[in-house]
Each structure stands twice: as C-alpha cells, then as structure tokens.
Fold:
Amino acid sequence: MTKSRFFILLILANVLALAGGFYYLEGLRSKTSAVALTPPDSDVTAELNTKKLRPSLGVSNGPPTVIIQTNKFHWREVESTDYRTYIANLRGIGCPESTIKDIILTDIMKLFAERRGRFYQNGREFKFWETSEKRALTARQLEDREKQLSKIDKELPGVLRDLLGINYDRELNKYFVDNGEDARRLSFVPEEKRNQLLALRDEIEGLKEQLVDQTLNGQPVDPEALKKIQAHRQRILAQILTPEERQEYDLRTSDTAERLRTALVGFNPTEQEFREIYQLWQAHDEKFATVAPDDTNGIKTKEQERQRIEEAVKSKLAPERVVDYERTRSQDYQLLSFFAERYELPPSTVQTLAEIKQAAENARQTLLAQQSLPEEDRAAGLKAIQQETQQAVRQNLGDKLFPTYARNVGTWMEALGTSGSISK
Structure:
C-alpha cells in the first residue's frame, strides 16, 4: 500500500465518520445510554495500550447492560478506551453497522497514520538554517523505517478483520477501484440475500486467514481444517440460496469460474459454452482443492483427471471451436487478445496476426533444420524472415500501432533473426 493511498483513505473515512457521528449525536440527545461491558481479553501490542486500540478475538456477543438512564445524551457515555467495548456500545444504541464501520475505521486509520508518521522524520530539532541533506534520513534510519512500516502495514489488515470483519484491500478498492462490483456480480438475488452472501464471504476469508496465521514455520495448512471451513460455507449457502440461485452464484464467484475466465482468454466463449465447460471443471476443482503438495498419488490422479476433462471439453465443441480452444494455450495469443480488446481491433486481425506468427516460426524452423547451409546464409535467411514478418504485421496494424505492439506483445519478432528459442 502506498503512502498516498493510505492517507487519501484516511481523509475520506474522516468525512464519512464525521457525517455519521453528527447524525447520531443529534438523533440521540434525548435517549438512554451509559453501558458497561466485560473488559477486553488481550491487546495487539503494548504500544497500542496507550491508544484506543486493543482488538482481540473475543468480542462480546451479548447485548449491553443499561445501568444509567438520563434525559440527555453524551457521546462520552458511548465512547470507550477499548474498541471492542466502543463497538458494542454503538450497537447498543442502534447505530447502523455501516456507520459503526465508518467511525471505527477512521479512528484506527488515524492511529496507524500516527504510528507510520513517526518514521518519516529523523528526530532532529528543526533548525531553519539547516539544508535538506542534514534533515534527510540516514541509510540506517531508512532501513529501519522500511522494517517498521512493513510491520505496521501487515498488522493493520488483521486488526480491521478482527474488529469489523472487513477485508482491508477490498475496503481500499471501494474508494480507489470500483465499489459496485459486488452489486453487479450478485444482481440476480435480492439485496437481503446479497448482504448475507457478502457477510459469509468475509466470514470465510477471516476463518482461512486465522488458519494460515496459526500454521507454524511455513508448514502447509491442514487440509482437514480447510475442509471443515468449506463444509461450513456450503451449509450456509444452502440456507441462503435456492439450487438455481446457487448455480448462478458459483458461475459468478467461484474459484473455478474465475480460473476459466483467465484460462479462456482469446476463446471468446458463448454463455452456453462457458456453462458447459464450467460444469465439467467444477467437480474436479472441488475434489482436488485440498490435495497436499506432498501427496504424490493425489497429484498424479489430479493430472489424469485434468487430461480427461480437457478431452471432454473438446468433444463438446465444434471442430473449428476446438482450434480456437487450443489457441488459448498460447500465452502470446492471450496477450494478443488483450491487446486487440484494448485497441479495438477486429477478430480477423487477431486471427491474421496469429497466422503470421505461426508461418514465421515454421519458416524459421525449416531454415534451421538445414544443417548443410553455410552459417552466413542461415543468418541472412533468418534476418529476411524477421524483416518480412515485421512488414506483414505492420501492414495489418498500421504504422501508428505497430511500435506499441512490437514493444508490448510482439517481442517474439526479435527472436526470429536468431537461432534461439521463441516464446509460445
């Protein structure tokens, strides 16, 4: 995470929290509210004990106990030096979860910003006559700063997960990338179910993160523990979704579907083709999801099953589509497909460029196979193949786009003039 993203989020969160806090202060001035809860179980770090950040996993689930009733609301009756109690108090007065998140997120981000900020100065007393190099951090201080910032940045996601149940990277993306992606993917279900699905996603991610954190010395995660988490996920999904909704949900969010959307770049599947290919791979991926890296038999069986499914996929496709499917195995072809989409090239251009590349490679291999050919003639022939290929590509893309293609996608053309290997 860059410093600029960190502080822009901090500013945005402050605005949200101030708005939410003001609204609830105004609305609760005549209501109840001093509450007493069980004290926190543990602290994250000793340094944070002096701040209002003491997250631990044992958040109280019970409702707050009202011990005082007044005719005037004071924010100090809700605010606490412990975040878990603070959150419980906010829930106790009916504050919506979205507003609680804004308030707590702002407070935490401010605290971590302060901690990060301590490492951006060298601690010297400010003297206006000192030039910049005197105030610059030393190499030792720079090294220490990177270590400390890395430690802080690794700690923050876990704190937010424990306190608010949110994914830190996804929360950032709401401000910097796209906050409507979830709604679009889950548009086939009502909002209530959508919220349940998102809550389940966050819960499962949290359980998996805890499992990884508990794994010692870089050992593989216990497959049985993963299976239990997956079984829990399946049970909850069955309670939320109908069988038809579950199928649509998997097509939009499952690891199998995400993998296929990457693996099939350049194939341009129809909706029906994608559904059929997905059905073939879904059971396979679920069956072998927890195969351990050292499970030789399991890995062998997985590879055999993968080859069987590949043949089953091809059997469902028309002959010309099998050719298209096979092309997706080429990384260069996939890069070309991305390039074509970016620059709005017609499918015919993609096909032509792929054929040009194949023809050039065939001509090159034929030339290299002529063992009796003098070296200077071989070199001249390779150079001619390279130049003719570049000219053909240029004619199809135009002078303006050709340099961009050659620099980003068409680096294979450089290897045509040599006897080395060409990337596929």
Notes: The chain has a mean pLDDT of 79. The beta strands are 34-36, 65-68. The longest helix spans residues 139-164.
